[in-house]
Amino acid sequence: MSRKKARKPAHLLKGKYSQKELDGRKEKDEEIASLMTKEDLENVPESLNERGVKYYKLLLEQLKNIVVITDLDKPSLENLSDHLSIIEEARIHRKIHGNLIETNYGLKPNPSLKIIKDYTSSYLSLAKSLALTPEMRQHMQKLTEDSISQFASDDNVEYLNKALEKRLSGNG
């Protein structure tokens, strides 16, 4: 199964395209680019409770290092923060009431256990999509290293090592 080739931006197109086609493509490119802003990320969603706000700010701080995060990721970030808040509340409830709860029909498992299980599973899925799991961070690091090593020739590495030695010895 072959993947569809990525669309070239309008300014890179060559060949027999009418000005109308180029203008149409350029307009679509600008529309897509306008979606890739980071302006709204800093605004904490009002739907989050106190714990959710705390997690939202923490996650946003972590994700600032990832260049590709944009306003389009805000709903995922909001859901992730909400999940962490719910998990924390369920853990507090379980700590106070224990793993088993006394009911009119005897001891029953604390419902918080199911909430923790379900929301943790969902959290892991969301965290993976935002590259927040150790596995995904390791994968991203490997991709970065591979892309860097592809440009590293023996000459480049030798030059960089000499420059580093100079800087460390205080001569640079």
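Above is the first protein from milestone M3; the second protein from the same milestone is given next.
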Amino acid sequence: MNVPKYSMDNKVKRDFLEFLKAAHTFKNEQFCDVEEYNLLKTVVNLDKETKEQLALFSNQTDICIDITQSDDEQQKIKITDDNHEETNLENSYKKPKDASVDIDITLHNGLVEEIKDWISGEEIVTQSILKEILALNTMSLDKLFKDLSNILTSEEIKKFWTSLSSNDSNNELILAKFLQFIFIPNSKLAYRYEFEEVFLAICEKDGKLLRSELIQELTKEYCSDNQTIIQYLIIFDNGYKTDILRDFVNSIDKLQADYIPIIETLLNPKVDQHVFCQLIEVMAFYAMDFCTDNSYGKLLYKLVNLMDKNLTSLEQPLKRILGTHKSIWKMKIEKTIVSWFNETLTQSFM
């Protein structure tokens, strides 16, 4: 093809050189048109100085594209990498997809469906399926349990727990993932009697792990809808409630309104006096924030009725609270305190 050469002045050369540099930097092999490239190469006449400047820029990059070939040179663009391996551009428009990705997805979906099929009937999950679950890495296990959480009914979740707990080789990681991704998120949706059995069974199997997962859920920064979880807390015996309350108090660094019903639910006669002291100190520190709050007042009233009457160390924090508190519970609290603190507290408390 006889196409006249285009002669560029100095300004056009500078602009065109910048264009070539930008094109080289942001090149996309997928959209490279070889015919247009050849036409551009034929029409544009690059002098020796421009070629040297472009070559200097290209040599500073990881991949070099030779755009200075003459009309008689090879028409195919070659890309040379750091190892001087050449790849024909026409055969490198698309990188082949990793087939193992499709295989992994297929295996994952197959396992999800197999578990669902087994526990949607009368059967629990087979040992062979449990072995597949145990063989998964942490990332795959997270995805499996997240997907199961979206498709299992409450009865199926109970069956899945029965399957997991019946396996002698199941470990703490599996149980933790079950709690984190399946059981606790679904138990928050609505109160279900079948979940009571699961809570109690998990408490018996690994009470420490359940306690840890519950506290993590109850103290989430942006989680204020704990009413359903609180209903489940009621089913535990006082000893376990005491353990939860102790860990809960040690986990919080401030008093929030949504913590009050949790604490009130967990309070019981078995709570040790050290925990009572921690609670009174926290309540005293945030007394001004809850000076008219009836829930705060009710919690304090319950506390003073459960505490040891000889805790003189709480005289000052209680004075700070009652000095600012104005809820309907104030008179009842004062009456209770005065009735059994007169013998031990100083007259300045009155």
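Note on the second protein: Residues 61-68, 73-103 have pLDDT under 50 and may be disordered.
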